[in-house]
């Protein structure tokens, strides 16, 4: 299993568009109905800082996710928007959970 956390800050005038772009690739993940991919995105209290947490059962699941056209489009639009604070990417190790992430 692999879990990746990405945090970044967009400009205030791009935040709503970023949320729409996130929702688009989240819908595609849902359509994939892939039990090996778990994804969640959060907006911070400043309404500009986004945190994404992606968990993958294996490397193949991560590759399927990264190949989604809507995710690639999201990344390009986000990066071209002129981030106020660039991406902070952290690979996390599971210590404990109240639920089973993968079967």
Structure description:
The protein has 103 residues and is α+β, with helices and mostly antiparallel strands. The protein has one domain: Alpha-Beta Plaits, CATH 3.30.70.100. The protein is built from 3 helices and 4 strands; from the N terminus they run βαββααβ. It has helices at residues 15-32, 59-66, 69-80, and strands at 2-9, 37-43, 49-56, 85-92. It has a 4-stranded antiparallel sheet, with helices on one face. α1 packs antiparallel against α3. The longest helix is centred in the first third of the chain and has 18 residues, at 15-32. It is globular. The N and C termini lie close together (11 Å). This is Quinol monooxygenase YgiN.
Name a few traits of the molecule.
3 helices, Alpha-Beta Plaits, four-stranded antiparallel beta sheet, 103 residues, single chain, alpha+beta
Strand order of the largest sheet: 2-3-1-4
* Rg estimate, integer Å: 14 Å
CATH class: Alpha Beta
Mean of residue pLDDT?
A: 96
Which structural class do the helices and strands define?
alpha+beta
What's the number of domains? 1
Q: How many E strands?
A: 4
Give the termini separation.
11 Å
CATH fold naming: Alpha-Beta Plaits
CA-based shape: globular
For this structure, the quaternary state is single chain
């Amino acid at each position: 299993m692999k879990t990746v956390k990405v945090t970044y800050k967009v400009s205030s005038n791009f935040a709503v568009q970023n949320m729409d772009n996130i929702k688009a690739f989240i819908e595609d993940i849902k359509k994939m109905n892939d039990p090996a991919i778990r994804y969640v995105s959060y907006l911070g209290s400043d309404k500009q800082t986004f945190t994404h947490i992606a968990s993958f059962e294996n490397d193949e699941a991560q590759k399927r996710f990264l190949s989604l056209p809507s995710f690639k489009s999201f990344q390009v639009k986000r990066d071209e928007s002129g981030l106020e604070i660039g991406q902070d990417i952290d690979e996390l190790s599971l210590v404990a959970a109240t639920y089973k992430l993968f079967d």
